[in-house]
Write a structure and sequence with these properties.
The complex is a heterodimer of chains A (about 170) and B (about 725). Chain A is mostly helical and about 170 residues long. Helices cover about 45% and strands about 0% of the residues of chain A. Chain A contains nine helices and one strand, in the order αααααβαααα. The longest helix of chain A has 25 residues. With about 725 residues, chain B is an alpha/beta fold. Chain B is about 30% helix and about 20% strand. Chain B has 24 helices and 29 strands. Chain B has a seven-stranded mixed beta sheet, with helices on one face. A six-stranded mixed β-barrel of chain B has the order 21-26-23-25-24-27. Chain B has a four-stranded parallel beta sheet with strand order 12-11-10-13. The two termini of chain B are about 35 Å apart. The chains are: A mainly alpha (about 170), B alpha/beta (about 725). At the A-B interface, helix 1, helix 4 and strand 1 of A face helix 1 and strand 1 of B. Strand 1 of chain A pairs antiparallel with strand 1 of chain B. The complex binds iron/sulfur cluster (SF4). The site of iron/sulfur cluster (SF4) has 13 residues of chain B, from helix 2 and helix 7.
Chain lengths: ~170, ~725
């Protein structure tokens, strides 16, 4: 009897922990984020079929640490001129007409103690696809790599880049 | 129960694993793009804008790091001659003024009784028309108390007040008036010289806190570093003479704790010895004047009065006169007595005696900036402010205006300055913060913070420069630049004043001033190009500086002795109030960074304390951290005791800057304002409040205080008596 009580309490604690853990992990939004984007943007369509250069939208990438997401205005440079509308582009127009930014869900994020610069890597001759995968073929955009330290280090090793801690942690 | 500890740890392990998953509720999960991109902003790339620091009146050049339109960091401008890339704590903390949650966000109008603290937001249109109609209702009856604002704003204020026949008082509470008065008498020049500390080999400082808050602390801090370590062969020596071991004294080679108020006498003694031993560099015929001055008191009398031994005086005199480049400076505690001006003249006489005027390592007057069309912002004395009481009484002066000055806090209540507020028919404040004086106002028309506004600043003294400030961020609140307000008032009043001040806004006025100036200085260059260059650089200055020669003026007739208020038997202690690097005279108290800047000697943060010599404390049976009552003939305050061997045994010292009754959440109700204790005595020659002229006594309260000290012993980051007792048991 007493033995069962103990096991039961343990079970309750474990299940609670799992439930909390599940909801907690939802916060990271890495894998499920794409489904929850406010509008279904397709990289395959834009970068693939239409062959739009990555830097046309991600204008910060070669001049800044952040690649940056395009201002709504950039979307509208093309979409203003399009006659045909899908339900998704309709959403875009609504944002534009209301003068509201689009609240994209963030997919990639490095912790605050890592300093990564897009500019430096592009200047060294890397292609966007080397880290972000073949986005031109992806309808949704999952993470193409872990972006964890081991992953960074092995690339630095392969390319003979600095492995000094202060290269990224400062 | 059978749940063993080990089982429980397993359970805990799972829970912990859950919490290791990435992401937490507070993290940024959204990427919010601009709707319309800002052409000048690249996300992730910082812009640096040059401007001028306005946290004190030194006017250091700053560079502000701005990312995505937000100011993130302030640094010194390496090109600016005043601070050459360095910045003090107040400058660093200026961002906390910009983002301060207690900033006044919109125009306010008083509700209920004066000083009750109830205000109602009104529109700008309402606010300005109420102000302008009051101006018109009391023609010739306006008084404006403003912080000194050398530059275009000063010209605007002066012209405006002149046209409406009002009075403009530039008020600077830091008490540098004695120094100005003394220099005017000694050298006949109405401006500050450059004390060439960098090239001096022997610096004799009478009470000057030049490493913390005197004139231009960053500038002189740099010069001091040069003097000590900038030359390969000489390390300049430095002696500090003052009753309390200040932060500046703690950096000195020797500290001479003399009796308060006798600094002038000591200077006399030193001069006397120099003259007698014949190591003087004097012009022919000058000697008799000096002999007359130095013959008045005997050295033994001086030793007795100053409590500096005779041998020490002789030693100081010899060291001073034998040095290759001796320099004597005076200020701080030496000038905050009733004989302040007289004392500083005696210090100046020492410099004349060794002939360092205009020499390298001496006192040099540098040619001021020529041709800048701005009015000088010469501060008035405390006495001039106090005189307002009478002029307000006969109802001639009926509109009081305040710009970045807080006399109700900085002047002691014994001066009854509050009457000026009571007598004024109407009070308008342009302050950004609800300080003690602004809380008494009838109408508040809040100014932009300096990082949001245009402005320029003329540095005087050792480094003539015209700093130029630009808005580095978009104004955060519904405030308006004070310059714009005055120009629009001029427009509404019309007539002559509108003709004198025809500009539509302050920016245009500023540009016009600079247009005239730059056309003179860089003829031929188109204004647009010159202007952008100046903005990028942060102002205008010349690499080489020309000295102006000054005549040597009369010496002081004799040395006056300082007066003290309070009977010596009843009030056995001298009182010294000192400014801290961060809080100054209370201006910095609403910036948390400055509140948590530890006092360099006692390491106290976020509060007030009373410094007592341990020997004195033992006499009275006082424990450290016990709360004592400090009582003067005018008031009393309570604060915890910190033992401080750097106090003379007959001295009680307290920091200034705390004890605000208004001024926002970080300042309010924290510590005490020791100014309450002060007698309304002023230095006769300059009208500056004599902060050191009050005597006090102390009483035990038997209660224990809890001052927060930042630990220096390596036992932790904070210590409190309670914490220590607990760890001992
Ligand atoms: S000394 Fe400090 S507060 Fe004063 S202007 Fe310079 S940086 Fe600003």
């Amino acid at each position: 009897m007493r033995k069962w009580t103990g096991a039961l309490i343990a079970l309750v604690v474990i299940i609670t922990a799992l439930i909390i853990g599940f909801f907690y992990s939802q916060g990271s939004a890495d894998l499920r984020g794409q489904d929850r984007q406010p509008l279904a943007f397709s990289h395959q369509r834009h970068a693939g079929q239409l062959q739009i250069n990555c830097l046309f939208c991600h204008r910060g990438a070669n001049v800044s640490t952040a690649a940056s997401v395009p201002p709504v205005y950039i979307c509208m440079t093309c979409h203003r001129a399009l006659k045909e509308q899908t339900p998704e582009t309709q959403k875009l127009l609504t944002y534009w007409n209301n003068k509201e930014p689009i609240p994209w869900i963030r997919l990639q994020r490095l912790p605050d103690f890592v300093r990564f610069t897009h500019e430096m890597h592009l200047a060294a001759g890397f292609k966007c696809t080397e880290c972000h995968g073949q986005v031109a073929q992806m309808t949704s955009t999952p993470r193409a790599a872990t972006f964890e330290m081991g992953w960074c280090i092995s690339c630095h090793q392969r390319n003979g880049a600095s492995k000094d801690c202060f290269t990224c942690h400062y | 129960m059978d749940l063993k500890r080990r089982d429980f740890l397993k359970v805990l392990g799972v829970t912990a694993a859950g919490s290791l998953l990435p992401g937490c509720a507070g993290e940024t999960k959204k990427l919010i793009p601009y709707v319309i991109p800002d052409e000048e902003i690249i996300p992730g790339v910082a812009d640096w804008y040059a401007s001028v620091c306005r946290e004190c009146d030194a006017g250091c050049g700053i560079l502000v790091r701005v990312m995505e339109g937000r100011a993130k960091k302030v640094e010194g401008n390496p090109a600016h001659p005043v601070n050459r890339g360095k910045l003090c704590a107040k400058g660093q903390a200026s961002l906390q003024g910009l983002y301060n949650p207690d900033r006044i966000q919109e125009p306010l109008q008083r509700e209920g009784a004066r000083g009750e603290g109830r205000f109602r937001p009104i529109s700008w249109e309402d606010g300005i028309s109420r102000w302008v109609s009051t101006l018109e209702k009391y023609p010739g009856g306006a008084v404006m108390i403003s912080r000194p604002v050398p530059g275009t704003l000063s010209r605007l204020f002066s012209t405006f007040m002149k046209e409406i026949s009002g009075r403009l008082l530039f008020y600077d509470p830091s008490g540098e008036g004695t120094l100005q008065a003394a220099n005017r008498r000694s050298f006949g020049v109405d401006r500050f010289p450059e004390y060439d500390i960098a090239n001096a080999t022997y610096l004799l400082s009478f009470g000057t806190p030049f490493l913390s808050d005197w004139l231009s602390p960053v500038h002189y801090g740099l010069a001091y570093g040069e003097m000590r370590q900038g030359r390969p062969a000489v390390r300049g020596r430095f002696v500090q003479i003052e009753p309390r071991l200040s932060m500046t004294a703690a950096s000195a080679d020797r500290w001479v704790p003399l009796r308060p108020g006798t600094e002038g006498l000591l200077a006399l003694g030193i001069g006397q010895v120099i003259l007698k031993e014949g190591r003087v560099r004097l012009a022919q015929g000058d000697r008799s004047r000096f002999e007359k001055l130095y013959g008045t008191v005997s050295l033994d009398q001086i030793a007795a009065k100053t409590e500096v031994p005779r041998e020490e005086i002789i030693r100081l005199a010899r060291e001073f006169s034998e040095a290759a480049a001796p320099l004597a400076i005076g200020g701080g505690t030496a000038s905050s007595q009733t004989n302040g001006t007289n004392t500083l003249m005696a210090v100046n006489a020492l410099n004349l005696l060794v002939g360092n005027l205009g020499e390298s390592g001496g006192i040099r007057f540098i040619e001021p900036l020529q041709g800048f069309p701005a009015a000088a912002a010469t501060p008035v004395s405390d006495q001039a402010l106090l005189n307002l009481k009478d002029s307000f009484k006969n109802k001639k002066r009926s509109l009081l205006m305040l710009y970045q000055s807080n006399p109700l806090y900085t002047l002691p209540p014994s001066t009854h300055f509050g009457e000026v507020f009571d007598q004024a028919a109407f009070t308008v404040s342009f302050s950004s913060f609800m300080d003690e004086s602004t809380a008494m106002a009838d109408l508040i028309l809040p100014d932009h913070f300096f990082l949001e506004a245009w402005g320029d600043f003329l540095s005087d003294g050792g480094t003539p420069a015209a700093g130029l400030g630009q808005p580095v961020v978009i104004p955060r609140n519904n405030t308006r630049p004070v310059g714009d307000l005055f120009l629009s008032a001029a427009k509404r009043i019309g007539g002559n004043i509108e003709k004198q001040l025809p500009w539509t806004d302050f920016r245009t006025m500023l540009e016009d001033q600079w247009k005239t100036f730059l056309a003179r200085e860089v003829p031929g260059q188109p204004f647009e190009i010159a202007w952008i260059e100046r903005l990028q650089q942060g102002g205008w200055w010349k690499p080489e500086q020309r000295l102006i020669s000054v005549s040597r003026r009369p010496l002081p007739e004799s040395i006056e002795s300082a007066q003290f208020e309070g009977d010596e038997k009843q009030f056995p202690f001298y009182l010294t109030l000192f400014e801290s690097m961060g809080l100054q005279r209370g201006e910095g108290a609403n910036r948390p960074w400055l509140q948590e800047l530890p006092d360099p000697a006692t390491t106290v943060v976020w509060g007030s304390w009373v410094e007592i010599n341990p020997r004195t404390a033992r006499q009275y049976g006082i424990q450290e951290r016990e709360i004592v009552r400090v009582i003067s003939p005018y008031g009393e305050v309570e604060a915890p005791v910190i033992f401080f061997p750097g106090n003379r045994p007959d001295l009680i010292s307290m920091p200034l800057g705390q004890g605000h009754t208004a001024y926002g959440r970080y300042a309010k109700g924290r510590g005490v304002n020791p100014v309450i204790l002060l007698a309304p005595l002023v230095d006769r020659d300059s009208g500056t409040l004599a902060m050191g002229a009050t005597r006090v006594r102390i009483e035990r309260t038997g209660r224990r205080g809890k001052p927060v000290l930042v630990d220096q012993t390596g036992e932790g980051t904070r210590r409190s008596p309670e914490g220590r007792r607990r760890s001992e048991t």
